[in-house]
Design brief:
Chain lengths: ~500, ~140
């Protein structure tokens, strides 16, 4: 069994004392920051990335993955206790989770969320380990033309799955692609769109863009809407769910895990759709659907499992194909590049300990979340009572130090301020920044592959038609886009996102 | 409104890359992709502008000035101060400037909190993590 050998190698790496410690710290600080209202996983990872600068690449990625899970779980905690979902995926959890908290069952809701997430994480880890190797072998057969087709297909799906208007999502993707062309041209070395600023000739730094558009812009938005936080939930109640609760949750957890694992692999909002789909399914299957929205434990267990499963399987396209399916994974690309790793099929072949170690650490990270979070919930609750005026200045300082430290360059801090302003304008204009980030990350890779493909074919665009896989992917991309704008589909799409 | 902004960005980008060789037939030049994307973006912006003009969309939200100005100002101040003056000065400065973005700002609390947070960050980033961020070059020499 090749598969078991890989897992054994992975666990041997992930269980080294140093990596265990890093995974633990990652989960802990990830939860710590993720629990702050209005700080989603993207901002959390961007803010904490400097913590990993001095660690070896394997440890750094293990820690970042831990930060990601921690941030996800922290988002669920605020959703349940405060009815403030830290991120989109926790929106569904807030519906029934907060109702449970109002009834004095906050502990049970948090407990089942942690348990469901753990079970989902276990399954998702196995899924990644099982399909990682075959997919990587497939990816190695891809030439530049196929890669280009695959990325166009990915962006097409991302646009369709984005929230809000399709036109706006397309605009943001194109804006991201345009931003990616900033900097020195790959072949001729000419400066493009740099406005004569020398610091821009390496292009826009991804962490700078992400931190500005997500971290800083979020602060600006939160300052405008001083949210009324009712930490009135004084009683957490028992953490361990009763046997009856467990029995009712088992089905939703299993189904949520399945849905989340599959949707998580899809680009764009795939991982985000999981919880919504799971909630809708559980409501449909329930004997008494009217309990939903009034504190049904199934409405917490299913979506939370789907959320966590999706969060993990979204690593698959990144690790095997080198294509980040969403903004969080795009940040992971940034982190890998800082450590001199180029994401793609080569990672598994050249750095097997890193690859399998990271996968094994996913399971360990989930275990840590279970261990850390249940006893520390009291601490998180107290943290939530810190007034926002102290919170945002802290976040601001962390962002400033973090961004400066990535390249030790003050210009990066100015660029972050600029993108923060841009992000604020996007929020005001109702433009979703996530598709832009994805376009930005894929942009540079796409241009490279496009020009490679054209160089191989001596400039003939026919290469995209003659190579069946590339042509097929491009046709699929066009098809999903066309389908998305068909009136009938766009109506049901609007409905799906409303729920 | 959004559409017009998008068109403006596209036009600016197109103007900036006007001098780059586009390349034709035999291959792509450095200017091909930015030009194509800028053109595409302009067209999409036009579609958005026309769309929102035809059907009255949601009214624009109120734009505030204080928050953005001071938060971004805090970042710029930090960037300006960190190299010559070090974290010891840049940290509290950023916190004080940033704190005024909120109307609930309190002088005493901000000063104490700024000092504490800076001390914490120095301990964490400089000593625990060993990042090469200047502390106070004018005082300590590093």
């Amino acid at each position: 069994m090749e598969f078991l050998g890989h897992l054994a190698l992975g666990f041997a790496t992930a269980l080294s004392p140093m990596n265990l410690l890093l995974a633990f710290i990652g989960c802990l600080v990830g939860t710590l920051i993720g629990v702050l209202p209005g700080v989603g996983p993207i901002a959390t990872i961007a803010m904490l990335m400097p913590l990993t600068l001095k660690v070896d690449p394997t440890g750094a990625l293990i820690m970042l993955a831990g930060i990601y899970y921690g941030a996800q779980y922290g988002g669920s905690t605020t959703a349940i206790l405060l009815n403030i979902p830290g991120e989109v995926t926790a929106v569904v959890t807030a519906i029934d989770g907060h109702e449970m908290a109002k009834k004095g069952q906050a502990g049970t809701a948090l407990g089942i969320a942690a348990l469901g997430s753990f079970l989902a994480g276990t399954v998702a880890t196995l899924v990644i380990a099982a399909i990682g190797a075959p997919l990587t072998k497939l990816a190695l057969l891809f030439g530049p033309a196929e890669y280009f087709g695959l990325m166009v297909f990915g962006l097409g799906l991302a646009i369709v799955l984005a929230r809000g208007s399709v036109l706006k999502a397309v605009i943001m993707v194109v804006l991201g692609l345009l931003l990616a062309t900033v900097g020195t041209d790959l072949e001729t070395g000419q400066d493009r769109l740099t406005l004569g600023i020398a610091e821009l000739s390496d292009g826009v730094d991804f962490a700078v863009l992400a931190m500005g558009v997500f971290g800083i812009a979020e602060i600006l938005r939160n300052l405008e809407h001083p949210e009324s936080r009712d930490v009135a939930v004084s009683k957490i109640g028992r953490l361990l769910p009763s046997l009856g609760d467990l029995r009712r949750s088992l089905g939703p957890i299993v189904r949520g895990t399945g849905i989340g694992s599959v949707l998580g692999i899809l680009p764009g909002n795939g991982a985000v759709l999981g919880p919504f789909a799971s909630y809708a399914l559980e409501k449909k299957l329930a004997k008494d659907p009217s309990r939903f929205g009034k504190g049904a434990i199934e409405g917490v267990a299913g979506p939370e499992s789907a959320n966590n499963a999706g969060a993990q399987t979204s690593f698959i396209p990144l690790l095997t194909l080198g294509i980040p399916p969403n903004a969080v994974m795009a940040l992971m690309v940034g982190a890998m590049t800082i450590h001199g790793l180029i994401p793609g099929p080569q990672v598994m072949l050249k750095h097997p300990t890193l690859f399998w170690g990271m996968i094994a650490s996913m399971w360990i990270g989930n275990l840590f979340l279970l261990i850390i979070n249940l006893p520390l919930i009291g601490l998180w609750v107290r943290l939530l009572k810190v007034p926002y005026r102290l919170m945002f200045t802290t976040i601001l300082l962390f962002c400033a130090i973090g961004i400066y430290s990535i390249n030790n360059n003050p210009y990066d801090v100015y660029f972050t301020a600029f993108f923060g302003l841009a992000g604020y304008v996007f929020i005001k204009l109702g433009l979703e920044p996530a598709p832009m980030l994805l376009g930005f990350v894929l942009g540079r890779l796409m241009e490279e592959k496009l020009r490679q493909a054209l160089a191989l074919s001596e400039g003939s665009f026919m290469t995209f038609v003659e190579r069946p896989v590339a042509a097929g992917l491009l046709v699929f991309a066009a098809a999903v886009m066309v389908i998305a704008v068909l009136p009938a589909v766009s109506r049901s799409r609007a409905k799906a996102f409303q729920e | 409104m959004g559409g017009l902004a998008v068109i403006a960005v596209a036009a600016a980008a197109f103007w900036l890359v006007r001098d780059l060789p586009g390349g034709n037939g035999g291959g792509m030049g450095p200017g091909t992709l930015p030009k194509g994307l800028a053109l595409l973006l302009g067209l999409l912006g036009l579609a958005l502008a026309i769309g929102s003009w035809l059907e009255k969309g949601l009214p624009l939200e109120r734009w505030s000035v204080r928050g953005p100005l001071l938060i971004l100002g805090a970042l710029v101040v930090f960037g300006l101060a960190v190299r010559p003056l070090g974290l010891l000065v840049a940290g509290p400065l950023a916190i004080v400037v940033g704190a005024f973005a909120s109307s609930e700002v309190r002088w005493g609390e901000t000063l104490v909190f700024g000092a504490l947070m800076t001390a914490f960050c120095i301990g964490l980033f400089k000593f625990a993590l060993g990042l090469p961020i200047p502390l106070a070059p004018w005082l300590l020499g590093y």
